[in-house]
C-alpha cells in the first residue's frame, strides 16, 4: 500500500529511509512547538492554546503535503512571520490578535487565488533574486531584534527620540543606549536572571550548532529551560504533570476576526503576510526539491503547483486553528539529507507533530529566555543569504540594502519590501536598464506608491 501511495521504488527509497528522514525533519523543527507559543504570548494569547494550534496546524498540513503532493516537505507556523504577527498585535499596543488572525486567513485566500490563476508563479519570476535574498536577510535581522528583546539582552521601549537620562538608565539597569526612530533601545543588565539565562543558552546552542549536532535548537531550548530552574526563571507549578491528554477547552479555533481585518484597513499587514510567505514558500519548495533530485533539467516539477495549493490552504487553516502563517520549512532539507524523497517523509513528520500534543504542559514551562537564543541563531541562518547579493552592481545592491536594513530599523517587514521594489524599479529605469525590469514590477511599483500616497505610512 505504501509503495503504491508514495511510489517508493520509483523514487529509489525505502520505508525505513523515509521514516528516519521524517523523524530527522521533526527533530530539526520541533523547536517551533516551544518558540511559537512564547512569541505569540506577547499578543495576549494563551501559550497552551497556541501550542495546540501550532501542533495541529503543522501536523495536518504536513500530512496533507505528503499525501496529496508526495513531497518530503514539512510545514509549520513560520519564523519571521510569527514575529511580525506578534509585533503588529502586541498586547495593549497593536491590533487585537483576533484581527491579526483574520489578516492571515485573508492572505491564505489570496495565496489560493494567486496560485490557481498562475499569478503566484509569475511573481516569483518577476521579483529579482537580489530582492529575494534581501527579504530573507531583512527578516533574519528582524527575527534577531525580536530574539534580543525576548531575552532582555536589549530592552526596547516605545517613546520619543531623545537620549535617556542617567537616572533612567540606572532605573532600567542599562549600561548603554541607542535610539532608532521611535524606539529606545537599552542594553540589559547582567544582574537580570532572564538575561543571564538567555546568554548561557545562546552560548550552549551556538556550540551545538558549531559541532553540527542535529536538533541543536531544540536541545538548546531544553537545556536552557533546565538551567533556568535553579535560577528561578523556569517556574514549575505545584502538582505539575509533564504529560497529559490534549485539552480542548480554551482553544482559539475559529476565533479569527476576518471582518475586523477588512474594516480596520489592514491591507498593509495582509500584504506583508502575503508577500513574505510568497518568497519563503517558493524558495523552500524549489531549494528542497532540487536537493532531493525531484526537479527536471530545467529546474521544474509538476508537483510545485500542487505544493503551493496545499501551502495556501494551510495558511488559512492555521489561522482558523489559532496561529500565525503556516509555511514550508527549510529544515525539511535535513530530512532530504537523510534520504527522504517522498511524501512518506512528510507524513512521518506530521504524525510526530500530532503526537506532541501530549507534552503541552512541558511547553508551558519554557520561559522566553530559553527560546530567544533560537531566534537569534535563526536570524543568523537567514542573514547568511547576504553573500548571494551582488553589491558591486549598485542598481542591484542599493535596493537590496534598503530592503534588508529598513525591516529591523522600522520594525516593519512591509516597509523593507516596499522600499526595495521602489528603488529597484527607479534605478533600473533611470540607468537605462529598463528591459531588466519585469512588467509585474511596474505594477507593484504603482500599487506601493498609491498605497503610501492615499493611505499614508505606518
TrEMBL record:
Keywords, ordered alphabetically: Cell membrane, Membrane, Transmembrane, Transmembrane helix, Transport
Subcellular location field: Cell membrane
Molecular-function GO term, any one: purine nucleobase transmembrane transporter activity
InterPro entries referenced in this protein's UniProt entry, alphabetically: Azg-like, Azg-like_bact_archaea, NCS2
GO cellular component: plasma membrane
Membrane topology category: Multi-pass membrane protein
Superkingdom, natural source: Bacteria
Chief location bin: membrane
Transmembrane segments: 20-37, 49-75, 95-114, 134-156, 190-210, 217-236, 264-287, 308-330, 342-363, 370-389, 401-427, 439-457
Protein family (similarity comment): Belongs to the nucleobase:cation symporter-2 (NCS2) (TC 2.A.40) family. Azg-like subfamily.
UniProt-recorded name of the protein: Putative MFS transporter, AGZA family, xanthine/uracil permease
Organism annotation: Desulforamulus aeronauticus DSM 10349
Amino acid at each position: 500500500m505504501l509503495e503504491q501511495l508514495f511510489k517508493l521504488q520509483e523514487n529509489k527509497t525505502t520505508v525505513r529511509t523515509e521514516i528516519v528522514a521524517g523523524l530527522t525533519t521533526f527533530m530539526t523543527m520541533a523547536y517551533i512547538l516551544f518558540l511559537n507559543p512564547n512569541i505569540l504570548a506577547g499578543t495576549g494569547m494563551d501559550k497552551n492554546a497556541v501550542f495546540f494550534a501550532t501542533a495541529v496546524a503543522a501536523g495536518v498540513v504536513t500530512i496533507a503535503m505528503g499525501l496529496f503532493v508526495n513531497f518530503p516537505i514539512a510545514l509549520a507556523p513560520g519564523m519571521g512571520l510569527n514575529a511580525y504577527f506578534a509585533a503588529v498585535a502586541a498586547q495593549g499596543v497593536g491590533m487585537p490578535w483576533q484581527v491579526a488572525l483574520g489578516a492571515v486567513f485573508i492572505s491564505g485566500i489570496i495565496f489560493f487565488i494567486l496560485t490557481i490563476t498562475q499569478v503566484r508563479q509569475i511573481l516569483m519570476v518577476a521579483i529579482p533574486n537580489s530582492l529575494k535574498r534581501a527579504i530573507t536577510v531583512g527578516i533574519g535581522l528582524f527575527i534577531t531584534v525580536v530574539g534580543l528583546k525576548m531575552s532582555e539582552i536589549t530592552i526596547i521601549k516605545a517613546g520619543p527620540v531623545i537620549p535617556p537620562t542617567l537616572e533612567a538608565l540606572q532605573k532600567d539597569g542599562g549600561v548603554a543606549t541607542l535610539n532608532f526612530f521611535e524606539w529606545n533601545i537599552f542594553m540589559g543588565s547582567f544582574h537580570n536572571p532572564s538575561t543571564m539565562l538567555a546568554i548561557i543558552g545562546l552560548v550552549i546552542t551556538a556550540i551545538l550548532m558549531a559541532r553540527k549536532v542535529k536538533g541543536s535548537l531544540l536541545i538548546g531550548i531544553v537545556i536552557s529551560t533546565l538551567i533556568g530552574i535553579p535560577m528561578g526563571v523556569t517556574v514549575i507549578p505545584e502538582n505539575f504533570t509533564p504529560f497529559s491528554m490534549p485539552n480542548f477547552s480554551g482553544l482559539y479555533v475559529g476565533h479569527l476576526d476576518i471582518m475586523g481585518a477588512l474594516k480596520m484597513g489592514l491591507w498593509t499587514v495582509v500584504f506583508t503576510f502575503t508577500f513574505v510567505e510568497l518568497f519563503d514558500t517558493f524558495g523552500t519548495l524549489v531549494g528542497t526539491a532540487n536537493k532531493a533530485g525531484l526537479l527536471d533539467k530545467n529546474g521544474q516539477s509538476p508537483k510545485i503547483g500542487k505544493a503551493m495549493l496545499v501551502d495556501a490552504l494551510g495558511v488559512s487553516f492555521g489561522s482558523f486553528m489559532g496561529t500565525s502563517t503556516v509555511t514550508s520549512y527549510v529544515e525539511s532539507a535535513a530530512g532530504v539529507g537523510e534520504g527522504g524523497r517522498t511524501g512518506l517523509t512528510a507524513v512521518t513528520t506530521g504524525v510526530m507533530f500530532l503526537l506532541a500534543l501530549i507534552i503541552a504542559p512541558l511547553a508551558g514551562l519554557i520561559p522566553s529566555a530559553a527560546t530567544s537564543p533560537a531566534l537569534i541563531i535563526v536570524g543568523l541562518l537567514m542573514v547568511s543569504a547576504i553573500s548571494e547579493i551582488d553589491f558591486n552592481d549598485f542598481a542591484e545592491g542599493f535596493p537590496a540594502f534598503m530592503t534588508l536594513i529598513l525591516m529591523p530599523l522600522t520594525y516593519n517587514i512591509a516597509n523593507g519590501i516596499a522600499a526595495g521594489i521602489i528603488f529597484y524599479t527607479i534605478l533600473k529605469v533611470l540607468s537605462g536598464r529598463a528591459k531588466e525590469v519585469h512588467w509585474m514590477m511596474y505594477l507593484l511599483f504603482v500599487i506601493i506608491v498609491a498605497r503610501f500616497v492615499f493611505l499614508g505610512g505606518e
